[in-house]
Amino acid sequence: MIISYFYFSAFLAGIYLLFIYKNRFKFGFVLPSTVFMLMWTIACISSIVVQKNKDLNEFSMSYDRVGIYMFFFIISSFLGFILARFFTVRRKGPVNINLLWAKYLSSKLQIFLYLSFLLGLLRIFIIVRTFGFESLYDYRQNVFLMSKLEQNGLWYYVSQISSYVYILANFAVVMVALKQAQTKFNIKETAIFFLLYSAQALSIGGRMFVLDFISCFFFTFFLVRGKNKKLMATQEFSVIFISIVFLIGIVMVLGVLRNNRDEKVSKEDYYTKLLYIQDGIIYTSVTFTLAHNNAYELDYGKNISSIDRENTSFQKFRDSPQMENYIPFVTGVIAPLYFDFGYIGSLIVWLIICFIFELISLRALNKNSIWGLLLVFLFMRFFYDTPLMIAGGRGLFRYLFVLGVLFLFRNKLKFDFVRANIDKFK
């Protein structure tokens, strides 16, 4: 019976995606709400597969409470996204940003992709020089160890610089996607950007960079194409489809190599790595099972915002002995929300978040501004992260800060752009 709620949740999220596609000429197709519903449709379907296959259900506990909550969670999101449309003026026509301006900003930001690549290589060098290299599994453990041991040394400062450079590298990928969406998909250029983009995440043994690249490039690509009659030209479809399948395959392989010391690998290992998007739901099911009878003080937003989250009820719960087996699991957005605002309060707050982020995005896209597009991208990334999110959306405020700094220099960038292209404007 409980699994039925996951079917209901996936069905409702799927209905929303169909609704958005049918109305894409009014508001666009790929929006923060689209990304959210897509990710949670996949997460719910993955949870259904895991619940039906006991061999893949090693860590999960009772889904009783989380199944019902998931259904309310999707309904809350649905209402917030739909409500935003009642406060937005419909604007017909495609997203149409000056192509020369997009190419100029892309050329300016590309330097950060190369810098991000070099910093990634430097971090790999530091780890290998300190600990040596035996396997990807051991390398990943050494990264965690280095982070604890070296709080003020070379690794610390390189990591701090890298985090900001990586944000600008993300913006560079968005600019290239914007450019290609208004011209045509270029597999060679995309592959080069992917290789440059990957070094940072590989330096910490991660695999999220593959999905991060998909979220940066393809979400932006389809956002810009969203109001067109065709999202892809016929000659683009096969290349884009194969590219995405190939990237998802990398996620599976890296997950197996990173988490298995033994040479023997079973099919279940690959299934698990493909289905890991439901890890946040597993963590939530554990949270609801173990925490619902205990009295905790609400954290009132500290977890979801990452503000002083180390001194919260949620952190104390995560550090408790009963959660020791679930340390490898990422939390997802629900558990932090639950400790912030309680069962009912979290649903209400999440509805408000969905409403505000979607409303801002719809109005920003109406202005056909690159800065608005980058802001929408940040909200898409926030919602994309929600099934697997470590509290705080992996640095949403840091992304907003970097975007704000770029925005402050917009007049200088615009002046340099006009001066560089003065002959084309005559």
Write a structural description:
This protein is mostly helical. It has two domains: 2-94 and 267-394, no CATH class; 99-266, no CATH class. The protein is built from 19 helices and no strands. α4 (64-85) packs parallel to α15 (334-366) and α16 (370-385) runs antiparallel to α17. The longest helix has 33 residues, at 99-131. The model has no long low-confidence stretch (mean pLDDT 81).
In short:
73% of the residues lie in helices and 0% in strands. With 426 residues, it is mostly helical.
The overall pLDDT average reads 81
Number of continuous helical runs: 19
Q: How many strand units?
A: 0
Q: How many domains, in number, for the residues?
A: 2
- Separation, N- and C-terminal Cα atoms: 69 Å
Low-confidence stretches: none
SSE topology:
Blueprint: H1 2-22, H2 24-27, H3 32-52, H4 64-85, H5 99-131, H6 136-149, H7 154-181, H8 187-202, H9 208-225, H10 234-259, H11 267-274, H12 279-291, H13 302-305, H14 313-318, H15 334-366, H16 370-385, H17 396-408, H18 410-420, H19 422-425
Search tags:
426 residues; mainly alpha; 2 domains; 19 helices; 73% helix; 0% strand; globular
